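Researcher: I've been going back and forth with a colleague about how F-box only protein 13 might be arranged in three dimensions. Neither of us has a model we trust, so I'd like an independent prediction. The organism is Cardamine amara subsp. amara, in case that matters for your notes. Sequence below.
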Amino acid sequence: MGFSTGKRKSRDEEDTLSSDFAMDDLSDDVLERVLSWLPTSCFFRMSTVCKRWKSSESSKSFKLACSQIPARDPWFFMIHDNDSNSSSFVFDSTENNWKNLNHLNRNRRDFIPVASSGGLICFRCSISGDFLLRNPLTGSSRHLPSPISQDNNKPLQAVAMITTTVTPSSYKLVTISGEIPNLSYRFYESTSDSWSKDEELLVKNNESNDSSSHDDDTDIGTVYFLSKTGNVVVASNNLQRSPSKQYSSVITVKDDAEIVYFLSSSGTIVACDLTKRCFTELPKLLPPFLEYSIDLVECNGTMYVILLSEFFESASLRIWRLDEKNRNWVHAGMLPPAMSHELYGRKGDVNCVGGAGNKILVCFNANPPEVYYRYFVYDLVAEEWSELPRCFKDGEAVDFVSALSFQPRIEATV
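Model: Here is an independent structure prediction for F-box only protein 13. You can compare it with whatever you and your colleague have in mind.
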């Protein structure tokens, strides 16, 4: 028995050696294709394996192989309420753990993350209005001057971003300005490295649902909404949102039609069709006199609405999508009552983001006097909810008010 056991061990060692030699026999192109399928977090550990693997990190052909991977599990770039906190925490949905990118991602404090797409995150300067595009993994960045002049009195409503995964990759940044019904947009394209010369006007679509008309709110008296800070405000005032969500919007592309969705100051969802150069105010999900918190996300080319409301001494957190043909809302998911009931009475707010694929992250935070944070993830395909673990730094819990989703792609360029 002892001899037989020793023999088997020897074969295992030989098999391991054979496997190692097989990897060494691979050509550089084949090896890089194999390595490109590894989870992104493994890329930062490749340099510790051998010199050959380390050289792949800077190889153009390796980055080309990475760009041909259709999609990667999302990482969530978490945003603090305290601007003085310079740490850049992300949640890796592949390894289900937290990572601190502070050593790679040195942000100026006056730049606030406002949009993301593909492997890039867009920051906006709160002082000048300029933009900064950055790959949070590599730290590569590009500065974009603001397309809106300082003497322009049109308020910025939304910032949206879209990227392509074709080689070479490209991206497009869209800004929507003005007040309903006088909306306009401009866009930046990386392929031309320039902003559109003139503002494009958006005309109100006359086929809009009458019940969602912007003027109808004036016929029902004073209307109140739950603000982004958890306070009840009159609809005539602007919704008070955290800085990172002030210009929050999502963009979808279907049949070559680009549509940007954003929340108006009165809480109405506005759909801007950039292809037809028109906008529509979508039907409201709840009567305007009810208090609720709302946010928009995009998953696989579809816009979803996350709605937190309270009825009969219980909280309800639901996900809806728009049936564009019949112009009504279709229920797409609900946080289990046992979990949502814990949110009741806390006057909290939801800030949400859709990840690459089918995952939606919901950040719930309640304001003082009771500070309360929860982070839920919903899988649209599996129809399952999960909760993120707490994040700790130097033994203390770190809390976040919102997040942006990006695909961890080392090959993404600005």
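Researcher: What would you highlight for our discussion?
Model: I'd start with this: The longest strand covers residues 170-179. After that, consider the following. The radius of gyration is 24 Å.
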